[in-house]
Amino acid sequence: MRVVSNRWSELTKCIFCFALSASFSGSSVFVQAQQPNKIPRIGLLSNLSASNTTAWEQAFRQGLSERGWIEGKNISIEYRYSRGRNERLRALAAELVHLKVDVIVTSISPETEAAKNATKEIPIVMASVGDPVGSGFVASLAHPGGNVTGLTNLAPQLSGKRLELLKETVPNLKRVAVIWDPDTPISSLAWKESHAPARALGLELYSMEVRSANDFDKAFAMATTAGVGAVAIGPNSPVAANQKRVAEVAVKHRLASIWQLSEFVDVGGLMAYGPDRSDLFRRAATYVDKILKGRLPADLPVEQPTKFEFAINFKTAKQIGLTIPPNVLARADKVIK
């Protein structure tokens, strides 16, 4: 009987210990449940205004949503816009660093440079940088090696394709003006990489240097006087911030224009050929998701665009008296009438 009594005593102790442990465990879970979870915060830095980036930001939020991140519920976004004034980007980037955001998302080179100069610790995801290696943002596309990663838009390499489309569209085209900004590395690179394809196509290039919005009218007037038949508009911050005005000036001088993004055709540009930037922003959300789950930007290879768009604005063609050839029209992904 003593043996049974001892076993019963040991069993009673075990039950008591288990109950006590469960009680403490339940309390721990309750306490943890009462503690508010930290909501990750994203800083979105743009050199444009909110009205210019609506579609891209919507695509970015959609990409986040597809991965379970809902703005206002389990993630927050701090938006900062320089409205075309690149000199303000440095201060805006510093604001995001001061807020201790978990990730900074940028679009093109000026924003990425400002963010990279502001922090070496906070991960930076670039959505559409033209030459991240040449700009010094990453060591290589395969191995970024720092706190910056994301996507490149390959903008300079597409310069030749845009010139080719212009020649197919504009009858007897001989001379093309290229709008570029000497103060922007990617814009300078696009200008340089336009020369070889221009020679192959038998086209002469005319340099249109534009550093600010004040240069547009004079630059177009000089190009018209120089006898150019069309304008190729590469990556350029002043142009991006004043796209509608540039499109209107091109129409005023009756010049065919080709841009790098289809959004520019929406505001009156004649044609555009380039990466689908909304798709790039949607894919940028994938990088944010991985980083928030513990991946290091140094280990996430930079990706290239997979979707390209060719857009044509019929209304603009009529305004400048240009007929779009059927073979060119047949290749368009988007036509505005």
Would you mind describing this structure in some detail?
The structure is a single chain. This protein is an alpha/beta fold. The chain folds into two domains: 144 residues, Rossmann fold; 148 residues, Response regulator (Rossmann fold, 3-Layer(aba) Sandwich), CATH 3.40.50.2300. Helices cover 44% and strands 18% of the residues. The strands form two sheets. The chain has a seven-stranded mixed β-sheet, with helices on both faces. Helix 2 links the parallel strand 1 and strand 2. Helix 2 packs across helix 12. The longest helix has 33 residues. The radius of gyration is 27 Å and the shape is elongated.
Q: Quick summary of this structure?
A:
The chain has 337 residues and is of the alpha/beta class.
